[in-house]
Each structure stands twice: as C-alpha cells, then as structure tokens.
C-alpha cells in the first residue's frame, strides 16, 4: 500500500460490496470512494469510504447534521419563504418539532450515519485481514471513525446498529445509548496508544488522530449524563457521576481531555474568528478534526453552510447568488444585546486598496481587483461576516449579466431588494412575525425577514454549490467551551470564567476598529455560560446537545411550542423499523 497517497484525490465510483447491515440501511448504493487501486477491499479504499461519509452530505449539507442539530434549536430555522422552501414542510417540521418516523430529514440522516457505521466496520475488516505497515494505526483510525458515527447515532436516535466485523455470521445488535456510551468511551480510550499524533505519519486535520480522540472523549463525557437519563423531566442530569474508568467524575475527564488539547501547544486561538471558516482555512490553527473539502471535480466540497443564508440578490460574483433560505431566531439575536462589539458578532471586509465594505448605505463602490479563481476574470464581491441585519447593500446585475460598475472601473454598491419580491427592500429583520406564530411560513412579500448568519465563507469558484472550506468538527474554541462547562458543573466558577474570557479576549476586531480585543466578562453562572457558548459555536452543529444539557430544549421559542422530553431524541425511521425486527421505536413515537 502506498501510504503517502491515502485519501488523495484519485477516485472511482464503486459499489460498496462488504460486510453489511442491510437490515438497518440500504448499502447497495453506488458511492464515490477515494480508492487508489482496483481492489475495493484495500485498506486505502475501505478507509477512504469511511472518511468520505463525513463529507458526503452528513456534516456539510443543510439537510445533514445541520438540520438535526441547528434547525431544531434557537439558533437556526429554515422557514417557507413564499414560493420557496416549502418542500412538503420538511424543513419547518424540524423547527416546529412536528417530525415523525416518516420525516425525510430524520430518515435521510439515519441512513447517512448508519452508512458511516457500516463503512467503518468494513474498514476494520479490511485492515484486520491485511499485513500492511502501520496496521495498528490504521485499525485505530477505523475504530475511531466507528465510534464517531456511532456516537452521533446514539446522540440523535438513542440507539445504533452494530455487527462484529470479523464474524460474517454475527447477528445485528442494537446498542442503547444509556448503556452503550460507557462501552464507546472505553473503545476510544483503548485505541489512543495506536493512533498517530496530528502531523505524524503524514496525518492531517482530516484524519482521526490522538487529538481527534481526545476531543471526542471530552464530548462523550460531557453528554454522558444526558444519555443515562434522557427523559429527565426537570433536566437535572448527574454530570458528576463517577467516570467510566473510576478515575474521578465525568467532568474531571472532560477537563483532563480538553486540557491535553489546550496545553499541547499544537493549537492556538485565531485572533480573526472568521478565519476559522474561510476559504483558506485548511490546516487552520484551531482545527483538531475537520471535514476536508476541495473543489476537485470528483466530489466537490459542499457550499451549503455558506450559501443557505445568502439572499438571491446577494451576489459574490456575476455568476453566483444565494438561495434566501436559513436565518436565526429573534431569541438568539437578542442574546447578543450589549455584545455587538464582540469580534465574533460581525466583521467588515477590507479590500486590497484599503476600502472597507460598510454595508450601511455610505458605500459608493469597491475595487474590482479581486477575481473569482478559475473564472474568466469575474470580479469577486466580498460580503461582511457574522450576523447581518437591517438594509443590505451590494452589487446589481446589468442586463448583459455583469456587475454594475462605476466610470472608473469599480464595482458599484447599491441598495438591494429581494429577487422574488422586487418591491421588498432587502431588510433582514430581527423579528420574524409569522402570520401564524406556530408555523414558520412567510408570504411572498415577507421573504426578507430574519437575521442572516454569514459565518462560513461563500466560495464562488465553481457554481453556487461547491466549496473549498473545511468544516470543523472539533476546534480549539469549542474545546475551551467544553472545559469551561465542566469547571462550572464542578463548582469551579473561577476557572470557567478564565476559559471563557480567554475566548473573548483572544479574538480581535478588524483594523477599522483598531484591532482591539474582545472585552472580558466579570462573572459567570449557568445562564451566562450558556449564552457565551452560543457566541462561540453558533452555526457549527453543536446547539441541540447544548440546549438539552442546559434544560433549554423543551422550552418554547419562535415557531416552536413547549415540548415533552421525548423530543430530545428523534424517532427511528419507519422504513428501518419495517425491515429490522431488532429495532424498537423510541418513547413517544
């Protein structure tokens, strides 16, 4: 095996013929695997297929983990906007908490995650039966991916399928979260000695390394108490239960594993918060484990996390536009009151000649010196980052299809109106004001509503749907929030405050505001910490577990009524129930 080529961009379409969990998910699919030789059972091919499931919709697409972990929360929703985004109610169902065992998003993500489990089991089998160099390391990686997919399946659905990959006659087992979380923790702790450290053995942030294992273990320990008592009506979870190995409590282990990462010297907080989510974020200084994305014409990276909030008349280039989909809720926007100067709230873009795009009506033009890569010299217009609200400005198209330009060859900046409601100014309102408060539906002349989040950079290089932006699954900023929460749950408010202030003061404003650092807070409690975690991790597919841990998930918020604890997990899809006797439907469904 040529290790130096593993997971590169040489790929073919193959049928994944291997150990199956056919009773749990359809594995007779044709997939695009990064295979380096003609043997689909090769270690390269099997491991590449397991890694590929991370980026093949699961953690990069609007309908993947984002729909499950963000659209169900106070941070994000995808309302029906006039003639757009109705889709049989599939999107607003997630935010209105009216999903069922037959809901498309619920079903699709079960299939994605259980496919990830199966591909990981296939990789374990391939490595185990090989005699390759560094066999133990690759076997540990495959087991790490198995744990990662299984953990997310347990988190979302409360149960997950498993089959012994080395026994072709082994029966399907259904793991239950309350019991399986302990075994999963033990499994990941057991593979740490065999995993490579990040940067060794040609590993990178897209590979499951020791550091990825530390982050996953901290995550599992942080949520272990919830899995043990998922339906606790008062959300009084026992976060300080004795750890699996008997060494301290769950929160002690969170502190241990997060401290290994924070103190390692391998990662550092980025002063420009939004650089973590930019087109040039590959190998970013905060990144621990990511979905690597490339525009390579094989299976191009997914632009959804940058594309979904952009309005159709917001155009990064004459050939690109947004889709006018997702927005945040009034509740989350209001949580930023008094913190609009936080470097994570927004950042204005500065062009190469020093021009700042203010987006406040004072802009006349910006230089046309930035060109879209790979285009026929299309000018590239850069919108600001963060939470965008109020009247929006930007370039307009001429009848010939180019940007309106000034006489001196610069991109003209104008007041923008909505594309499908041309008399409606593009005013992104903090208020949503649905006609029926319990249904996330806008009339055609209301499609401008909702503060938009431009956290992930929109990549205009190839169409609207492709991207070079790596998607962080674990990064240093999130590790600090985990440790702060563990400290607080142990009663060590001083250390929790120090960690959150490290995040606040390590980020700096743009040069327009003197590159000043964010300001520290003077005290902390559970409510303040919850708000601060939102400031750091919004739009990163982390919110739902946070809301459950802090007892916020069942509460009403915009277009969402108060709900019962059974909604903390999703139903097992009906199509899986129909073919798998071992599965039992979750409580309440």
Automatic annotation (TrEMBL):
The keyword Membrane applies. It is found in: Cell outer membrane. Residues 1-22 form the signal peptide. Belongs to the SusD family. Keywords: Cell outer membrane, Membrane, Signal. The keyword Mitochondrion does not apply. This is RagB/SusD family nutrient uptake outer membrane protein. Residues 286-589 form the RagB/SusD domain.
């Amino acid at each position: 095996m040529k290790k130096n080529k593993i997971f590169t961009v040489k790929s073919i379409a193959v049928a994944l013929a291997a150990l199956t969990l056919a009773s749990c998910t359809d594995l007779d699919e044709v997939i695009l695997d990064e295979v380096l030789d003609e043997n689909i059972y090769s270690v390269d091919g099997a491991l590449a297929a397991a890694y590929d499931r991370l980026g093949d919709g699961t953690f990069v697409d609007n309908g993947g983990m984002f729909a499950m972990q963000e659209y169900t929360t106070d941070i994000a929703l995808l309302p029906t906007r006039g003639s757009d985004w109705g889709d049989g109610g599939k999107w607003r169902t997630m935010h209105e908490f009216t999903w069922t065992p037959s809901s498309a998003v619920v079903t699709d993500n079960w299939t994605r995650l259980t496919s990830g489990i199966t591909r990981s089991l296939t990789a374990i089998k391939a490595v185990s039966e090989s005699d390759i160099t560094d066999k133990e390391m690759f076997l540990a990686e495959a087991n790490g991916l198995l744990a990662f997919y299984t953990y997310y399946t347990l988190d979302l659905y409360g149960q997950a399928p498993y089959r012994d990959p080395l026994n072709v006659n082994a029966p399907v087992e259904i793991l239950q979260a309350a019991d399986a979380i302990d075994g999963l923790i033990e499994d990941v702790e057991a593979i740490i000695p065999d995993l490579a450290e990040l940067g060794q053995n040609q590993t990178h942030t897209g590979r499951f390394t020791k550091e990825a294992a530390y982050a996953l273990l901290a995550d599992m320990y942080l949520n272990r108490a919830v899995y043990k008592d998922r339906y606790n009506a008062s959300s009084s979870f026992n976060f300080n239960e004795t750890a699996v190995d008997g060494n301290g409590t769950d929160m002690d282990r969170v502190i241990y594993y997060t401290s290994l990462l924070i103190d390692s010297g391998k990662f550092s907080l980025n002063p420009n918060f939004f650089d973590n989510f930019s087109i040039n974020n590959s190998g970013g200084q905060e990144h621990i484990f990511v979905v690597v994305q490339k525009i390579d014409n094989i299976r191009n990276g997914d632009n959804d996390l940058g594309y979904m909030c952009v309005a159709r008349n917001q155009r990064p280039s004459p050939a690109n536009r947004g889709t006018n989909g997702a927005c945040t809720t009034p509740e989350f926007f209001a949580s930023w009151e008094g913190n609009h100067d936080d470097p994570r709230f927004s950042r204005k873009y500065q062009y190469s000649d020093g021009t700042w795009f203010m987006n406040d009506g004072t802009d006349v033009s910006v230089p046309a010196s930035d060109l879209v890569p790979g285009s026929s010299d299309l000018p590239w217009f850069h919108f600001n980052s963060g939470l965008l609200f109020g009247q929006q400005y930007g370039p307009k198209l001429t009848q010939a299809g180019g940007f309106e330009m000034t006489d001196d060859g610069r991109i003209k900046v104008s007041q923008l109106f909505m594309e499908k409601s041309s008399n409606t100014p593009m005013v992104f309102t903090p208020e949503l004001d649905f006609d029926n408060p319990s249904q996330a539906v806008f009339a055609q002349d209301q499609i401008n509503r909702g503060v938009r989040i431009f956290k992930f950079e929109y990549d205009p290089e190839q169409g609207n749907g492709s991207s070079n932006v790596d998607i962080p699954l674990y990064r240093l900023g999130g590790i600090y929030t985990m440790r702060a929460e563990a400290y607080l749950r142990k009663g060590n408010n001083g250390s929790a405050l120090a960690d959150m202030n490290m995040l606040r003061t390590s980020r700096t404003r743009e040069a327009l505001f003197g590159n000043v650092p964010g300001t520290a807070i003077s005290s902390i409690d559970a409510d303040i910490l919850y708000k601060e975690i939102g400031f750091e991790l919004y739009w990163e597919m982390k919110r739902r577990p946070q809301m459950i841990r802090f007892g916020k998930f069942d509460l009403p918020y915009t277009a969402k009524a108060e709900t019962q604890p059974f909604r903390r997990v999703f139903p097992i899809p009906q199509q899986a129930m129909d073919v798998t006797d071992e599965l039992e439907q979750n409580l309440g469904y």
